[in-house]
Design brief:
The structure is a homodimer of 206-residue chains. Chain A has 206 residues and is mainly α. Chain A is built from nine helices and no strands. Chain A is elongated and about 65 Å long. Chain A binds a DNA duplex (19 and 19 nucleotides) through helix 3.
DNA sequence: ACCTGAACACCGTTCAAGT
DNA sequence: ACCTGAACACCGTTCAAGT
């Protein structure tokens, strides 16, 4: 299982000295997180994956939470949430698509949920999404303050919805479970509810 | 710190044989979780707290996740989310109060957030909140299916909002952070947005 | 500068033994 | 039936040493 036939041009760089870096480690770490779950990304496991001693990682990362942050940041970047076709002028459509993408991204790696909460900060990637959202809404006529408020609401709803679809759902009684299961577009419904509220605000204001 | 003056009639039961039980352990566990964080609730730490060997716990709990579930369930029960003055007839007020209480409960122990997501199921306590919500809304004129959908949205928003207020907030740029900080009633705003959407639905329908 | 090796204080958990 | 004690395979991390 180590290396009979060369895999698929994935790990071309052999492990010579100096070929370890934050980026290479973050990539390898994300790979482990994707395939085995973020909870199984451990210093020793990552070290084995890049054929190195656990302590070698500490030359590039302060500690484990530093590594996790880097992996999460890379995860968000790769998701590329804002890079969809919808133009910023269609602010409502842009928001719906963006936060729908965010949901999909989260669902693609459920093991991130525990890390969404405290400590581990999402880096440049996540900040980008917020900033772009604010810009789009400001251009549409919202105050930046109101835009920040709305982005918060959307973010909160998407994260909560993702978490619920993954877990809370299972703690319902059988009867109510059945009711939940046949309403698939819960996210869409919620997003539109919030966005239509914003639309109404804008039309009243102008 | 062990027992010079009797504390406050909290741990009356001395550690004789047979005085260990799921309930006593769950209570002691919740106490640790409250004071030191749920992440520091460990088998060995709990064992020390009840003056027993770690393995004694396994007589009462399958494994650690079983213990965590029991502690979380007790946490929800103690929160007593639905036990407020608002009558069920005022369904909108009831919902706002209930989910506002839920938010407060979550914020009172932020270390639960990582456990909100996967695996650990909230037990009877959480199911109760959902069931009562559905009943209140059904009585107000919603179909049970639509009520389930709405409860989902509310739940998702509250959880997401709580998580964000605790963490996501910190990953904003300084500029946007300032904008966020002076809008305290983000929860209230969001709750009312969702509930007013429901009100509108009901008025159209009838 | 970059990595290794041995060691430490923790985990959850198993298994065999005591009362 | 209920609890103890020793042991195992894991953690993250420190410190001293190699190249």
């Amino acid at each position: 299982m180590t290396s009979m036939n060369p895999p698929a041009a994935v790990e071309t760089a052999k492990h010579q000295r100096g070929h370890l870096s934050r980026e290479r480690l973050a990539i390898a770490g994300l790979k482990i997180a994707r395939t085995e779950g973020l909870e199984n990304l451990t210093m020793k496991r990552l070290a084995k994956a890049v054929a190195v001693t656990p302590m070698a990682i500490y030359r590039h990362f302060e500690d484990k939470s530093d590594l996790i942050d880097a992996v999460l940041d890379r995860f968000v970047q790769e998701q590329d949430i804002c890079n969809h076709g919808v133009p910023g002028k269609d602010w409502a459509g842009w928001l719906e698509r963006t936060y729908s993408n965010m949901y999909d991204g989260l669902q693609s790696m459920p093991s991130v949920y525990p890390y969404l909460s405290s400590g581990s900060r999402f880096g440049a990637g996540a900040t980008d999404v917020v900033t772009q959202s604010l810009d789009v809404m400001e251009a549409a006529g919202f105050s930046r303050e109101r835009a920040a408020q709305a982005a918060s609401t959307l973010n909160g709803f998407v994260i909560g919805c993702a978490i619920m679809d993954n877990a809370f759902y299972q703690s319902l009684s059988a009867k109510d479970k059945a009711l939940h299961s046949n309403l698939e577009p819960r996210l869409q419904t919620g997003l539109r509810l919030i966005i239509s509220g914003l639309k109404h605000e804008l039309s009243v204001q102008s």
